[in-house]
Design a protein that fits this description.
binds iron/sulfur cluster; alpha/beta; eight-stranded antiparallel β-sheet; 29 strands; binds flavin-adenine dinucleotide; about 15% strand
Length: about 1000
């Protein structure tokens, strides 16, 4: 829906005048909302974030007058382009995400609330939950759960979302707001109303508008033909294609009209949900589950038939039955070492089965659960001899791993290499269970004919299959193959009485195939749509196909994954610069982009929009900044979307130097948690750095950022006057002055600057020998000190050296080392980051060739040297550094594992609260709750009670929290950690990152120290 600039400005101004919520029409915002988690792309003309129902109604009325399509959106993580479109996108997840009321067994919510958040609150306060889940558990909004009404993962336990819907408030296409209460269904007249608008108005006033819509719908449905009724009756219980017309007319005489049931699953095409009341459940007991491993996928399917057929096993009550194939199992094993002992390498397929164990109020007895499980294992393993291994799941930890395997098996294909794409075209079909085997045989034969490989999984217990052909979009024959392939797959599914969708609905991808499944009902669907949305403005192209083929909306650059973008690769560097200059691009932008553009391109394209970065739970830390502010700009995926848009030329290159791009890039504080938590391994920190660098190149650095980047130089300069600076830091008036001039936050406790840096100190001291490469045959270690220890805590570096020497290492402190440059990476000061990286690489690589291992005091420095340098410089030397740099605690732990660590520790009797820095987790590729090397090391000290305090990021992120502009947010992020540390029984805090220690002290007034100090005490070097 292309609009001129003037039209767009008018649209924006009109809407801003009408509503309280946000209205944005800029290029960058359009780009951020142009994709979801699938393979389609469509750029909206405007994005609106309403604050309340009035806002929604006003936008809908305006759109109806101006004939602009509307697309409702929750978290935007659908796979079929459901929330995409070129009209106005209405985003519910920004403001309309509240719990409005919690009753004993119901809850009233706004549509943008994430299911995960709702259940977090209900679980804590009432030990209840909203059960059904059809969608990505990390990011699914309740509006979308109702709009799709899919069967989903928990169907066997809870049924469909609409089974738990008490009432629904919707805004219709003309702006009418109606509430559909399922306990009081409207009873419309047996015949359509006659007498024109005045009669309708009179009825609406007397009985409510619901009455009128119920009457019109009943009229459409009562005219169903015999063929339509037959088609309707043949539907699978888990069918989600088309409208649920069969469930609308209720009661003995079919006079009650259940419009809420019709709206559930209508994919936002009949109205926009603005509030819903849902039934809640007592939390289930989870006591018995088992993972079966099979040598063939057909044995697994045979087992499904046995498990689900009640006649064979009347005792069994499965509430979950998931199939995972070999490809996914192997990728899950490779993802995380935790799974290796659990998943046998020879397994061709696995079935994860959970059995009913009752609810919290009515738990099944332990004996009954044990018997049930024994019976199930007996059936599958002993009697039918289908599986070769059965793994019982008993404890809470086992259940957590069980859930993770299911979860990761869904996400894992995003990790596939480069141009190979899992296409979400067939991963939501369902067939009767007894036909599963035949369907899979036929599908595999089809894929063999097309010479493609596919991955297979699904909620097998309800006949659901996720079929993922792995297609290489770089091949010219891939695109033309898609449509015939889809038709073959669907014809196999439909021949066996199945459905083309059991969870997602048809969306943009599948609506064109709906007539294959419902040749007669499709006209009825059109009549229903016309009743509620005669202008076809609500989510057009979904359910009722009326637009161009979806291949016209393919995500840009899909076919180029794995290649260098042509507009960069076709030109040599110098040509590129000339060409760019011709186009009047800011010179500096090109220079920033010139660094290995293919890496940036590949990384930006890796993001598939899966929404895993919206995951806010105990085991996750991804993007601490986005937790308080759930706008799309804060999400890691926004950084990828922005750069992809620029590299694909969907938006101008100059945009990168604009304030909006900077705003987005600045929401990344380089913690690198997405390195391990993003399933697709998108290097978001790097993408954000590139964006910031382009901005800096065009506009220069503001004072605050310049100070951050050049902190080491400034400290060097200030050291002689350290006494004056330290005194100033204690003086309230001077602190106020420093805040106003140098943007140093008044309230922040600042570390004390030394008058002599560590490197200067050893340069002239008796420790001089540490500067010289050692000639003995001891294992050689070079210590990388970095800014904090060098200028603020030289004793820490000294203790590190002492500990290493005590353990028999020959320690060398390279005097010409410079700061790692983490401040420069943080603010996007690329030139300086580049200079520092090249300098340090030259210094360190020489030492590595002499046999030295480089040990950094903090994991943050190690992360900078290994990851950031490699991406920035990308040559053999930086690879060498990446392989040979390790942080202090990891190094000592490796020594311990190799039996080389001295363990003559003295007891240290105290209780410490250990906080794991994000960089330590990211470096050791651990989950948030896993023990870091520092934690494991501290546990070796006798009598030291180490309490892990896992409350997410501390909010400091190196220097980020020291900046005045970030101070408030930094403290807010740290509050859960402060609360836990303030507990009386914790004597003091410990963290292997000095800025984390500084934040912990700041937030609790309890001292926090580096583990080196505790190790030094345990070795007797310090009191
Ligand atoms: C890794 C991964 C795994 C997934 N696994 C599954 C799965 O197992 N099962 C499954 O079903 N899906 C799955 N999905 C798809 C996705 O999770 C679901 O589509 C989910 O419901 C999307 O939620 P959302 O809030 O992002 O919705 P959106 O993408 O924002 O919207 C989804 C639909 O709901 C409509 N909608 C949203 N809010 C409203 C409203 N207020 N009023 C009317 N209509 C509205 C939109 O118009 C759109 O049609 C998966 C996705 C990913 C990335
Ligand atoms: S950044 Fe990673 S986690 Fe976030 S949407 Fe993209 S792929 Fe998913
Ligand atoms: S590096 Fe950290 S702050 Fe940046 S996007 Fe990733 S998780 Fe968020």
């Amino acid at each position: 829906m292309p609009l001129t600039a003037a039209q767009q400005t008018r649209l924006r101004d009109d809407l801003r005048g009408l509503i309280d919520g946000d209205v944005r029409c800029d290029e960058v915002t359009q780009q951020l909302y142009a994709t979801d988690a699938g393979i389609l792309q469509s750029r909206p003309v405007c994005v609106v974030c309403p604050r309340n129902i009035d806002d929604v109604a006003a936008v809908v009325k305006y759109a109806a007058e101006e004939k602009i399509p509307l697309h409702s959106r929750g978290a935007g993580t659908s796979l079929t382009g459901e929330s995409l479109g070129n009209g106005i996108v209405i985003v519910f997840s920004r403001y309309m995400r509240c719990i409005l009321n919690v009753g004993d067994d119901t809850v009233t919510v706004q549509p943008g609330l994430l299911r995960r958040r709702l259940n977090g609150v209900l679980g804590k306060s009432k030990r209840r939950l909203f059960g059904p889940l059809a969608g990505n558990p990390s990011s699914t909004s309740l509006g979308s759960i109702l709009a799709r009404n899919g069967a989903g993962l928990h169907y066997l336990r809870y049924g469909l979302p609409s089974d738990h819907l008490v009432s629904l408030t919707v805004v219709l296409a003309n702006g009418d707001v109606i509430t559909l209460d399922r306990n009081a269904l409207p009873q419309p007249p047996p015949q359509p109303l006659e007498g024109g608008k005045s009669v309708a108005l009179a009825h609406a006033i007397a009985f409510g508008k619901e009455y009128l819509y119920a009457g019109e719908t009943a009229h459409v449905l009562r005219n169903r033909t015999r063929e339509q009724l037959l088609e309707s009756a043949k539907q699978l219980p888990v069918n989600r294609a088309g409208y649920a017309e069969h469930a609308v007319l209720q009661g003995e005489s079919e006079h009650g009209v259940d419009l809420a049931r019709l709206f559930a699953g209508s994919e936002g095409t009949l109205g926009l949900t603005v509030a819903a009341t849902l039934k809640t459940f007592s939390q289930p007991q989870r006591k018995s589950a088992v993972a079966f491993f099979f040598r063939s996928v057909f044995s697994a399917i045979e087992a499904v038939d046995g498990i689900m057929s009640r006649s064979t096993s009347p005792m069994l009550r499965p509430v979950l039955c998931e199939l995972i194939d070999r490809r996914r199992l192997n990728m899950v094993r490779d993802w995380d070492a935790h799974y290796r002992p659990l998943i046998p390498a020879e397994a061709e397929a696995a079935l994860l089965v959970e059995l009913d164990a009752g609810t919290l109020e009515e738990p099944m007895s332990r004996n009954d659960c044990r018997d049930q499980l024994g019976h199930l294992i007996d059936l599958v393993q002993t009697k039918k001899q289908l599986c070769f291994y059965a793994l019982r799941v008993n404890t809470d930890e086992d259940f957590e791993l069980f859930d993770q395997v299911i979860r990761r098996s869904e996400l894992v294909l995003g990790r596939m290499h480069r141009s190979i794409q899992p296409v979400p075209l067939f991963d939501d079909v369902a067939v009767p269970i007894n036909t599963l085997n035949a369907v899979i045989h036929e599908l595999l034969a089809l894929f063999q004919r097309y010479e493609i490989t596919a991955s297979l999984s699904g909620h097998a217990g309800q006949g659901h299959l996720r079929i993922h052909p792995l297609l290489d979009f770089a091949q010219p024959d891939t695109m033309p193959m898609l449509r015939p392939l889809a038709e073959y797959v669907y014809s196999i599914v439909l021949q066996h009485g199945g459905t083309i969708s059991s969870e997602w609905g048809t969306g943009l991808l599948k609506s064109q195939f709906l007539p294959l499944q419902f040749p007669h009902l499709i006209s009825l669907f059109r009549d229903i749509k016309a009743t509620f949305d005669p202008q076809h403005l609500l989510n057009p192209g979904r359910v009722i196909l009326e637009e161009t083929h979806w291949t016209a909306h393919l995500r840009h650059g899909l076919e180029k994954r794995g290649q260098t973008p042509p507009f960069l690769s076709e030109l040599s560097d110098s040509q590129f610069m000339r060409q760019s200059r011709k186009e009047h691009l800011p010179n500096q932008v090109e220079i920033q982009l010139k660094w290995d553009p293919s890496f940036v391109f590949e990384s930006a394209h890796r993001c598939n929009g899966c929404g895993e970065c919206l995951r806010y739970d105990r085991r996750s830390r991804i993007c601490p900044l986005s937790r308080g502010t759930p706008t799309i700009e804060y999400l890691p995926r926004a950084k990828a979307d922005l750069l992809r848009g620029i590299l694909e030329r969907d938006i101008d290159l100059e945009t990168l130097t604009g304030g909006r791009a900077k705003e987005i890039a600045d929401t990344c504080y380089h913690c690198r948690m997405c390195d391990i938590e993003c399933p697709s391994k998108v290097d978001v920190a790097l993408l954000a750095f590139r964006s910031k660098a382009a901005y800096v190149a065009a506009h220069g650095l503001p004072l605050e950022d310049l100070m951050t980047s050049r902190l080491d130089t400034i400290l060097n300069f200030l050291m002689p006057a350290s006494w004056l600076l330290n005194a100033a830091m204690r003086n309230r008036v001077l602190r106020w002055f420093l805040e106003k001039t140098l943007r140093i936050p008044q309230s922040r406790i600042m570390p004390t600057l030394m008058h002599l840096s560590y490197l200067n100190r050893i340069r002239w001291s008796a420790l001089r020998h540490r500067l010289l490469p050692d000639q003995t045959d001891k294992t050689r270690v070079a210590l990388f000190v970095d800014t904090f220890a060098n200028y603020f805590d030289p004793q820490l570096a000294e203790l590190a050296v002492q500990i290493l020497e005590y353990n028999g290492f020959s320690v060398h402190v390279p005097l010409r080392q410079r700061a790692s440059g983490r401040g420069s990476f943080l603010v996007g000061h690329a030139d300086r980051a580049d200079r520092l990286a090249r300098h340090n690489i030259a210094q360190m690589s020489e030492l590595i060739r002499l046999g030295y291992k480089i040990v950094t005091i903090e994991p943050y420095s190690a992360s900078c040297l290994t990851k950031d340098y490699r991406h920035l410089i990308n040559d053999a030397e930086s690879e060498l550094i990446a392989e040979n740099v390790v942080d202090f605690c990891s190094f000592l732990l490796q020594c311990y594992w190799a039996g080389k660590l001295r363990e003559d520790f003295q007891p240290v009797s105290c209780r410490v609260g250990y906080h794991a820095p994000c960089s330590a987790l990211a470096m050791s590729a651990s989950l948030a709750t896993d023990a870091t090397p520092a934690e494991q090391l501290l546990r070796l000290i006798p009598d030291l009670d180490v309490q892990r305090v896992e409350r997410g990021c501390c909010g400091m992120a190196g220097l980020w929290g020291f900046l005045q502009k970030n101070y408030r947010q930094s403290v807010q992020i740290g509050i859960p950690l402060f609360r836990a540390l303030r507990r009386a029984e914790i004597d003091f805090g410990v963290s292997d990152c000095n800025s984390c220690c500084s934040q912990m002290t700041h937030g609790t007034r309890k001292r926090a120290v580096h583990p080196i100090r505790l190790l030094a005490i345990a070795y007797g070097f310090q009191e």
